[in-house]
């Protein structure tokens, strides 16, 4: 059990830190919240000290506060959770670890899907990405913005207005004709 904690906890902390620093991340924990969680984990002695996975709590249990235990679930709560899992097909069947839903998905109601974007929103995003040069084109896998950065540098995802110097505005062109 110790090697799992040794690998899982640092991995979870690293992933959380990476997600909290990315600018496009979904709303989640802030940097301050992650730091607070890290400090709490250090206080509780659950961050491994070395490659063997030795925890400070295991080496000196008196130096850390006792773990707070949650009250166990009542018999009625356990029964209701079990019946809900049976109805949903989420209980493992056999030695392979597959659930009844995995074996026969048509026998169970579909799991609700999270709300996504509408078709129009996806089309608008695709058009904006194409205009901004963010969609790879060709065999190289590079985007137009990577191939020609001067054209796409800081450019908004709107088409440019063309300036045609050889054309005169209509008002200026009609004025000399009226004077003749």
Structure commentary:
The protein is an all-alpha fold and 180 residues long. The chain has helices spanning 2-21, 31-44, 56-59, 75-88, 100-103, 119-131, 144-147, 149-152, 170-179, and strands spanning 92-93, 98-99. The protein has a domain at 2-63. The protein contains nine helices and two strands, in the order ααααββααααα. Strand 1 (92-93) and strand 2 (98-99) form a beta hairpin. The protein is flat. It starts with a helix and ends with a helix.
* Sheet with the most strands, sense and barrel status: 2 strands, antiparallel
On the 0 to 100 scale, the average pLDDT is 76
Which percent bin holds the helix content? 40-55%
Radius of gyration: 30 Å
Unreliably modeled segments: none
Number of helices: 9
Question: Pairing-aware structural class of the strands and helices?
Answer: mainly alpha
Query: Could you state the order of secondary-structure elements as H and E?
Result: HHHHEEHHHHH
Strand content: under 5%
Shape: flat
Distance between the termini: 97 Å
Which properties best describe this structure?
180 residues; mainly alpha; two-stranded antiparallel sheet; 9 helices; 48% helix; 2% strand
SSE layout:
Layout: H1 2-21, H2 31-44, H3 56-59, H4 75-88, E1 92-93, E2 98-99, H5 100-103, H6 119-131, H7 144-147, H8 149-152, H9 170-179
Antiparallel strand pairs: 1-2
Summarize this, please?
This protein is an all-alpha fold and 180 residues long. The protein has helices at residues 2-21, 31-44, 56-59, 75-88, 100-103, 119-131, 144-147, 149-152, 170-179, and strands spanning 92-93, 98-99. The protein has a two-stranded antiparallel ribbon with strand order 1-2.
């Amino acid at each position: 059990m110790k090697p799992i904690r040794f690998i899982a906890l640092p991995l979870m902390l690293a992933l959380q830190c990476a997600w909290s620093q990315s600018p496009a991340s979904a709303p989640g924990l802030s940097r301050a919240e992650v730091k607070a969680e890290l400090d709490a984990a250090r206080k509780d002695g659950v961050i491994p000290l070395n490659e063997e996975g030795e925890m400070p709590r295991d080496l000196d249990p008196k130096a850390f506060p006792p773990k707070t235990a949650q009250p166990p679930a009542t018999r009625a709560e356990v029964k209701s959770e079990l019946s809900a899992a049976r109805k949903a097909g989420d209980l493992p069947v056999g030695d392979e670890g597959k659930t009844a839903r995995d074996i026969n998905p048509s026998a169970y109601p579909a799991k609700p899907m999270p709300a996504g974007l509408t078709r129009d929103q996806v089309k608008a995003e695709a058009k904006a990405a194409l205009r901004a040069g963010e969609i790879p084109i060709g065999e190289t896998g590079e985007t137009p913005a990577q191939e020609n950065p001067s054209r796409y540098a800081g450019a908004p995802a709107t088409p440019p207005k063309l300036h045609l110097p050889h054309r005169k505005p209509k008002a200026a062109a009609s004025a000399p004709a009226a004077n003749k």
